[in-house]
Specification:
The protein has about 90 residues and is α+β, with helices and mostly antiparallel strands. Helices cover about 25% and strands about 35% of the residues. The radius of gyration is 18 Å and the shape is elongated.
Length: about 90
C-alpha cells in the first residue's frame, strides 16, 4: 500500500466515523436493553438498508408494520436484567 492509498483509506475511515457520530442512531436489544450497535438508516425506493451492522451479530425483525426490533444473535451477549427480589 503506497502513501496515497493510506491517506485515502484514512480519510474514508474518518468520514465514516464522523457520519456515525452525526447521523447514527443507537440501537438496543429488545430482550435485555443493552446497546447492540449504532446504525445509519437508508430508505430508498421501498428498500431499507441499515449501515453499521456489517460486523455485528444482531437479529432484526419487524415488531410491527412501522417498527424494527433488534436482538443479540448470541445468547451470551444478551445480559438479561436480574429479576427483582421476592417480597417476604
Amino acid at each position: 500500500m503506497n502513501l496515497l492509498e493510506k491517506i485515502q483509506w484514512k480519510a474514508a475511515y474518518r468520514w465514516r466515523l464522523l457520519r456515525f457520530r452525526l447521523w447514527g442512531k443507537d440501537i438496543t436489544c429488545a430482550e435485555c436493553g443493552q446497546p447492540a450497535g449504532r446504525v445509519i438508516v437508508h430508505l430508498r425506493a421501498g428498500r431499507l438498508r441499515l449501515e453499521g451492522l456489517e460486523q455485528s451479530d444482531v437479529i432484526v425483525d419487524f415488531a410491527s408494520r412501522e417498527t424494527l426490533r433488534f436482538r443479540h444473535a448470541d445468547a451470551s451477549e444478551c445480559r438479561k436484567p436480574a429479576p427483582p427480589p421476592a417480597a417476604p
